[in-house]
Every structure is written in structure tokens, then in C-alpha cells.
Amino acid sequence: MRNCILVIEHDPSVSRFMQLKLEEAGFSCIVDNSGDSAVDMAGQRQAELIVLDPDEPLKNGPEILTKVREVSPIPVIYLSADGSVDAKVNALNAGADDYMTKPYATKELIARIHSALRRHEEPKVIVDPAFTIGDLSIYPDRHEVRAGDEIIDLTKKEFDLLLFLAKNKNRVIKREEILEKVWGYGYAGKTNIVDVYVRYLRSKIDEKVGKKYIHTVRGIGYAARD
């Protein structure tokens, strides 16, 4: 499961119901019936979002929010039976990211959790590729190949072959060497497997992108060229 949600709710039956619904939606969930763990979990980044219901007998919602905000920007969804403007303003000013008035639909709560997590998601940094063939970018650490902004979906062996060709760009490589380096010394299958996988790559990359990256050198083998 992904994205740990901390639920602060004094009523065990309500918190258990929320936990089940959140887990059904694919989240992991930790329940705290007192609010005592909010600051520690937020500060140690053990949760990605807090659902805070500080109604009776807790009543210390703004105080919990203030303490959490001192240690973390973790998103907090505030639940309360008080639908007054003042209550909403106080909670938002104390650091709540969202405010829902009870009773609420569980479906809406889950949608708001998704929305809050998206807003707080750290931007993904795409580093320079380790290898390129023309405008084809190959990222070994992520096992990813891109043609411009488009991701090319490859199997592991297709990726291994392309990566080996990219590492030896502009060098003509014999089929025997490719077989040894990509399939290994102990490979006992058909010797034309290199040709088969080059065709796979061409169908997924060259033909799709409209540009030739892998060139055949008759009687010898293959070369990757910009």
C-alpha cells in the first residue's frame, strides 16, 4: 500500500471505519485516538497526510495544527461538525489544507486526500540521461527510454541490448560479442536471437519514432548511430 494516512479521531468505531475505507482505497493507515502522535509522525515523515477530527472530547484541533506546522508542511484535512465560517477560518489560519463539515461522504474525503497529496507532491527531477543515441535518451537507473517526451516501453532484454549498443555507440559490434555481453557466456539458445531482438527494438523505436537508430553492417553485426 502507498501513502500512509494518520487519522486522528477519538471515537474508535469511527476511526476503524475510516481506516477500512482508506485501506480499501489503497492507502496505509495509522489511527490515533488522542492526537498525541501527530507532531512526532509529521516531523519524522512517517505519514504523508493527516486527517484530523478534533471534535469532542479533543477540542484541540488548532493547537495540534500549530504544533504540526512547526515541524512539517504535511497536508492536513480538518473534519468538524462546526460548519461556521469562523471555525473554518480558524482551522485554515492554523494550518489546515482543507476543511470538511460532518457528516461527509467517504468518497469525497478520499478524493480530497488525493487532491491534497497531488498539491504537495515533490516535483520529479529528470536528470540528464546516462546515454543517448541521437534524440533517444536512455536512463539505466530508472530502466527508462525516452524519445523526446515519449517513454518507450521495452522488456528487460530489449533494454539491455539497447543500452549495450548505446554504450558502444558508433562502433560496429559483431553478433557474437553482443550475444556474449547481453545474453551471457552460458546462453544456449538460437544464435539468431540478436537479429530477433534488433527487430523488436526497431519495431518499438525506429518505426514508431520514424528515425533509424540501429544500423546493420552486413556480414558483421550492428551499430548504434546518432
Essential attributes:
2 domains; five-stranded parallel sheet; alpha/beta; single chain; 226 residues; Rossmann fold
Give the name of the CATH architecture of the largest domain.
Answer: 3-Layer(aba) Sandwich
Q: Report mean pLDDT, rounded to a whole number.
A: 87
Count of individual helical segments: 8
Number of strands: 12
* Arrangement of strands in the largest sheet: 2-1-3-4-5
Explain what you see.
By secondary structure, the protein is α/β, with parallel strands linked by helices. The protein has 2 domains: 2-120, Response regulator (Rossmann fold); 131-224, Winged helix-like DNA-binding domain superfamily/Winged helix DNA-binding domain (Arc Repressor Mutant, subunit A), CATH 1.10.10. Helices cover 41% and strands 23% of the residues. A 5-stranded parallel sheet has the order 2-1-3-4-5, with helices on both faces. It has a 4-stranded antiparallel sheet with strand order 6-7-8-9, with helices on one face. Helix 6 crosses helix 8 (193-209). It is elongated and about 80 Å long. It starts with a strand and ends with a strand. The model has no long low-confidence stretch (mean pLDDT 87).
